[in-house]
Amino acid sequence: MAPVIDTVAWVHLTEGRILGARTRGKEVFYIPGGKRNAGESDLEALLREVREELTVALVPETVTHLGTYTAQAHGHPEGTLVRMACYTADYRGELTASSEIEEIAWLRLADRDRTAPVDHLVFDALAVAGRLR
């Protein structure tokens, strides 16, 4: 069985664009989020990762599951998969790149190839739903 990296992600959309984050030293953007710590629920991991990466606080009662996607893990040996549980949520604070994040950007469907393979699936689903232009 292929190794699976279990992650959560915050899908934040505005005006047909999605928020992306680029980690220091990486060339691709990712949907903000990351791996859960041992014993963390999706919600706990999501709140922690977004706070660490973007300095904002998600509003827990607004967190809604958008979908879960699985694809080849970017930058890992062939056959290593990433499973990404995606959520939407309102937030409080000002979006700011922090911690290991070098850059945040508002991405369009045309930017799909600037993201990791699992993000391609999210971009495609959002485009089909008319939420990403």
Could you characterize what this model shows?
This is NUDIX domain-containing protein. One of its GO terms (biological process) is DNA protection. Belongs to the Nudix hydrolase family. The protein has about 130 residues and is of the alpha+beta class. Helix content is about 20%, strand content about 35%. It has one domain (about 5-130): Nucleoside Triphosphate Pyrophosphohydrolase. A hairpin with an 8-residue loop joins strand 6 and strand 7 (about 80-90). The longest helix is centred in the middle third of the chain and has 13 residues, at about 40-55. It is globular, with a radius of gyration of 14 Å.
Looking at how many chains there are and whether they match, the oligomeric state comes to single chain
> What is the 3D form?
globular
Query: Strands across the major sheet, in which order?
Result: 4-1-7-6
Low-confidence stretches: none
Q: Please give the CATH architecture.
A: Alpha-Beta Complex
The total domain count is 1
* Percentage of residues in strands: 35-45%
Counted beta strands: 9
User: What is the average per-residue confidence, as pLDDT, rounded to a whole number?
Assistant: 96
